Amino acid sequence: MTGWVCGIDGCGLAFETVEEVILHQTNEHERHECKVCGTIVPDGYLAIRHAFEEHTRAEYVRAYGASSEEVREREEVKEEIEAVADLQAIAEKLS
Ligand SMILES: [Zn+2]
Ligand SMILES: [Zn+2]
After folding, report:
1. Among all ligands shown, which has an atom nearest to the Cα of 10?
2. Distances (CA, A) of 41 to 28, 37, 66, 69, 85
């Protein structure tokens, strides 16, 4: 098992821990502009988290043209990450 792979389009870099993936996504990828509210957020997990915690599924689907399957997939990624990630440590590193 190579651990965690960055899922941002065309990247595919693998990291040992989920914290490293999130830091990589935050520092090395371009920021993402939320299509619902226009806030600039780091791409990857943090963009997913923003979308699902700040907005409803319906808003997300409308703004991104996502299918319910895509919504489910992203929710699964989010849950998977939250099950193992030390989000407190990540927030401290990012601040
Ligand atoms: Zn990447
Ligand atoms: Zn937003």
Report:
1. 1
2. 13, 11, 19, 23, 19
How many angstroms separate the CA atoms of 70 and 2, rounded? 24
For residue range 50-59, what is the model confidence (pLDDT) as tens digits? 999 999 999 9
* Spans of the chain below 70 pLDDT: 1-2
Block residue for tokens 């030390």: 86
For residue 14, the CA-to-ligand 1 centroid distance in Å is: 8
Q: pTM above the 0.85 mark?
A: yes
Do 6 and 22 touch, CB atoms closer than 8 A?
Answer: no
DSSP 36: T
